[in-house]
Each structure stands twice: as C-alpha cells, then as structure tokens.
Amino acid sequence: MELFLSYLSVLKCVYLFLHLITHMSKSTRPDLIKKLQALLSSPDTDYRSILRTSAELSKLDEKFQRFTIDAKTLIHLGRDSIKDHTTALIELVKNSYDADANDVEVEISTKCKTPFIRISDNGFGMTKDQLLNSWLRIGFSSKRNSKLSEFGRRKTGEKGIGRISTDRLGANLELITKTVDDGIIGLKVNWDEFDVEGKDVFDIDIELTHPQNITLPTSLNVQKNTGTEIKITNLRQSWSPKNIENLYYELSALTPPFSEVKDFEIRLKNDVAEIYSKKVESDFLKASEIELTAVYDGKGDDILYTIKDKYNPKESTEYIKWQQILTTFSRRLDTSEIGTELTLGPVTIVFNFFTRDSTAVLGTDLKLADLRAFIDNNMGLKIYRDNFAVRPYGFPSSQFGYDWLELGDRKARDPAGLGRGEDYKITPNQLIGAVFISRDRNPKLIDSAAREGLVESEEFEELKAMVMGSILILEAHRAKLYPEIQKAKKTKEKHSAYQETLRIKEQLTTVKEDLNAIKSEIEMGGTVNPENFIKPLVTSIDTVEIISEEVESTISGLLDWQRQLSGLATMGISSAVFGHETESSISQFKGAVNAARLVLRDVPPDIESAIEELDKALKNSKKVAAWGAYALTRVQREKRIKRKTQVIKTIKNVVKELTPVFESSTIQITVTGDNFYTTTFPMDIESMLVNLLTNAYTATLLKGGVRKINVDVQKEKRGQIEGFFFKIADTGPGIPKEFEHMIFEPLFSTKTAGANSSNSVGTGLGLTIVRSISEELKGDVTFGKDPNLTGAFFKVWLPKID
Questions:
Q1: Mean pLDDT of 123-152
Q2: Are residues 104 and 126 in the same domain?
Q3: Is the pTM of this model over 0.70?
C-alpha cells in the first residue's frame, strides 16, 4: 500500500513539475529542478514527503496558488464553535437519527478507571469508502445532495462538521461502525495532535482499526445488526448531576412529546445522577389546562385553530384569517417588520398551558412536584425543524433563546390578572409549546452562521408574529374561561384562610350592629330600659372575647408557621448547596453494593473484594444517614418552643451533623467559645447558623489551598444589655465591595456552581432569613473581612434572656 501511494505521489509530483516548468521564468527553473532531484534521490523519501514537497513546489507557480490547511483549523471548527459539552453530545445523537437509527444509547461513565462517553446506535453504519471519503473529509456532507434518509427522515445537518464535536467532549475518539456489505471497521483520533500551531492537517495520522466486535444498543425496538459506536475518553469537562439533568431534558426535547415521531428512542445511562439512567420520555401534557393547535398549510392566509380545555369536553375549531389576527390584536402585536401577506411555508403550532397548582393533577396519576419539575425543565416555546429541536429556542438553560418572544418582560410591564380580560397575559413558565417547520418547505428559515438559532430574516419575523398571534388567541380563550375557573377554585377551597377571615368578619359585623343599636337607644335620651341593651352588650362582649382569643391563637399560629417556614426554607437552601455531595454518596453507595453483589456471584465468590466494596458502601451510607438525621431534626416541634437553651451545644450539634458533608469537600470546620444559656427559640439559632454555614461552604470552594470555617460563640455586652454573638468566618474570597450594599436584599445571590461557572445555585434568601430572625429577636447582623482566615465573616449579636 505504501509503495502504491508512493508511485501515485511521484506521478502527482512529476505532473506538478511539468505544469510549473511551463509557467515559470527561465531564471527560476534551475532551483525547481534541484529541489525535485534532491527529493527523488533521498533514501528517506516517502509519499508524505513527496506530497509535502509538491505543496512547497506549488508555491513557485507564478500564475496560480492553492490553499493549505493548518491542523488547528479543526479545533476552531469543533471545540471553539460548539458552546458546551451538552450541545456537542446532542450533535452526535442527531447523526444517529440521520443514520436511520431506531435506538440510541448514550452512556456517561465518570467513576471508572478511564472515564468515557459512549454513543451507540443501530443505524445503517458506514462502509469503508464512506468512512475514508466522507467521514474523514471535513466539510463534506452527503446530506446536501441526499436530504432524506432511506426511511424518509429529513436529515438534520448539512455542514459536514458535526463529527468534530467529539473534540469538544474529549481528546481521544474511537469510532467503530458496521454495515451489511463491509462488516466492522473503525478508526482512532487523538484531537490533541491537531492543537499545534503551524502543523499541516495532512501530517497527522488517523489510525484505521479492524475490531472484532461492536456493542449496539441492547433495548431495540427494531432488531438490526448494523450501526455505529463512538467512544470518547480523556474527557475535557466534568459532568455534574445538573449537567446530566439538563442533558436528559434536552434529549427528551429532541423528539417532542407532541410530535408524530414514534420510531426514535434514546436511552441514557450514567453514574453521576442515576435517577436519569432510563429511557428518555415524558407523559405530562395530559395535565395541561388548555391545548391549542394552529395549522397553516402555506397557502393563502387562513389559519386553522383548534382549542380544547379541561372545563369543556368539546373542542372548538375555527379558521381565522391572518389579516383578522393583525386587526384584532393590532394594539398588542408588533407588525412593524411584517407584511399583510404571508410568505411562509407550512407551519404547525402546538401549545399546552399549565396552571402549576394542584388542580392540574386532579384526576390523573401524576404528582404535582413531578409535574412542576417537568414544566420547569421543558417550559418555553421550541422550534422543531423536521421534528428536531432548533436550539436555543425554548430551552430553559439558554439565556438567549428560552424566552425568545419576551413573554416574561411583557408580563412584568403589565401584570394584569385573569379577571382583567384582554389585558391578561400568560407567563413563559406556564407554557410548553412547539412550532413545527420543514427545511424543504420553509427554505428561507435557515441556520445562522454560528449554528445557534435561525437567521432573523423577514420570514423569521413573520413566524414570530404568527406564534405571538396564537398566544394572544390562547390568552383570550383563557380569559373567557374566567367564570368557570373561579367556580372550580371555589369548589376546591375548603376551610381556607380566606373563609376563616370571612367568618371572623361576619362575627365582628354582628358585634358592630349590636353596639350601634345600643348606642342609638342611649342617644335617644329619656329612660333607658336596661333589658333592651344589657343582654346584647354581654353577648357582644363575649363574642369579642372569643374572637380576641381566636385572633391571638391565629397570630401565634402564624408566627409558629413563619418560624417553621424559615426552617423549611433553610433546609431547602442547604439541600441545594450540599445536595451534590449527598447525591454523590448515594451513587457511590449503590455502586459499591452492586460491585459486592457481582463478586459474590463469582464461582468461587471473591469474599475479600466483596468486603472491601461493602466497607465503601458503609462509609457512604454514614454520610447519607448524617444528612438524613440533619434534615429530619430541623423543624421538630420542640425547636419551635421558646425555652432555656445552651447556645454552644446547639451550634455544636448542627456542626456535628454537617461535618461529613464539609469533610467530603476537604473543608475543616471548628467551633470555639463560651458556654452559657439564654431563653430563645432553638430553631431561630439553627436557621441563622445553617444559612451562614451554607454561604461559608460555597465561598471556601471558590479558593484553593487549605479550606477552613470557624464558628466562634462569645458573650458580649452592649451598653446595659447583656448579650452574646456567634461569628462564622471562612477562607473564601470575601464579599466584593460592589455587592456589600445588596447582600441582604431578597433574591440576591452570588453563589455559583463553582469557580469557573456562572450558573447560580443560590436562592438569595439565606441572608434575608438571617437578618429577619435577628431583627425579630432585637439583635443585628454585621459582616466584614476576617483578619485570621482572610475570607468573610458574619457576626450575629442577640440579647441574652435569662
């Protein structure tokens, strides 16, 4: 093979020589001849060096020149043009769809000796010719010439660079593919070899392999014996549970829940968040309050609208003209960039509107918490072209594209309620919708150069206006349902706080009427018969006393409820911050137990290895148990009762419960100080402490080196008032000066998922809770830079009550 390539290279070189010598001036011909003679006479000459010299010789051509390609160009096309690892993986799954796969298996393994990502499908695979002349030819795509797959699917990519997305995921790629004609063939790529300045792409070897086996998806809807398996190692980015969650829901959006696509199934397997190791699917649309479908066939200006809701069994169908929509909603629809005549091809719009409350799951087997999670992860309006989602439209994780119709800003400017009729507006987090278009029948709706979104042409503005008009029709329909919605709510309400308020109001009205009657009789003068007013007065006094007791009990209950809510909010905040470690411990526990089970099934069983794995499981179970104990004791009744409390003991108990979580992140936590008692609510001390500890935990992770948190408890007298403080200091970066005036504001948070992340993991409520509780107890909160640990400190001072 090498000899054959050398002959071809020599022929190419001689052809180039003859071409050049006929175009060059006589003065430069001797140099050309010398270079060619030196090349052909060298014992180290191979076909690569001949071709490389041919490229150098071609630069001597005085009439024509040619491009050369730097190897790093591939890095720019792949790694630098695809924004994150989720997008890169989605590109590979799209390739499986184009290959007529029925099943795709996506596996992410991070806890094994060599972490890897694996994508396997049962598509038609690639022949050796396709692998060498198509896959290895950057920029080549058969999809431009053959837009439909053998199964009639409209192929999703046409630029020929999606394969380079593997470089965004990891440095090493192994591809194995199997076809009916050629059997199994593969190749290996080390992308890091391309990340070198000045290296020609032709100088880098791609190893061809001939594997004996290929692992195709095991849960097949259609049994096939062909397909492609991609394995990526030396991963470039870690995968967090949140990354896996985002990936799962983005995969579920690739083939929408309301589409006709039934022959494409994705199964996700991972060891990061095992809850998402399952078939990718969703079944929550049946909980929507309103379903709207709009169909435009691409001809004329008639749009067919079909609407059904949960209050009326019969759906309504109506043709509405485009001009009628423009006229009816002229005040609320921006038509500045569109004409009165539609130029779009066929478009189908599907909306599902959700109320997000318990009425949504009545009569179903769905849980409200699960429904809300589904809405939160799928909310927004996605655009699907040939049944594949066009990013970033409608993706919750995308700032640019999630609310591409700016429904949130629109609602914020005019937050009219449902009772306000035509002024009512929905919010983007209540809507799951899809806009279906076709690449062939909407040729002017094309991708932007960055492969992120569509070009905002006149046709795109027309599409936006049609979608917005459909939203206005949905809003108008829901406004008409207002009486029925109110009726349903009243039927549901039992023993509500509203009804209790009405009851007390009625009692007070009766008292007022009795007292007014007595007052009128007294003001009439003359002889007043005591019998006429003493009995009503006594009754009124008794009623007022009863109401006073009820109000006092209600206020006491509300305060207790507020304290309980603060405790629950604190537990929720700390769960969000510490949840990763706990989830990781659970995953490791499961993994160790499964490993022990496997080695015990061996013949003979490997007892020593099983004990080792069970020890790992026990260690992780203690971490989970510690977290469970912490969570279960946060809102116990006795903590909401004011009693004599040993402050440092209360603080040490909380720290002890959280120590395993801190230790798993290599954070040293210590408690020092005085031992004394005060009369207070234990839950208040714990809520303030836990919120400050979660802040310190997050801050210490933002810096390297030794990580420390110190809690100090001391008595401190202010003027004539005996008091005490507890102070939490950390080794984090401290509080930026530009944020100092904002840190106690509700919903303001600087917590992120890590030093290199901009994703917030904070609720912005922790410090608000701390200040609120301290003020209620007539104390205060101060902060600054700690002189010892050099990070931030927060100091809570409270009056001491004996």
A1: 71
A2: yes
A3: no
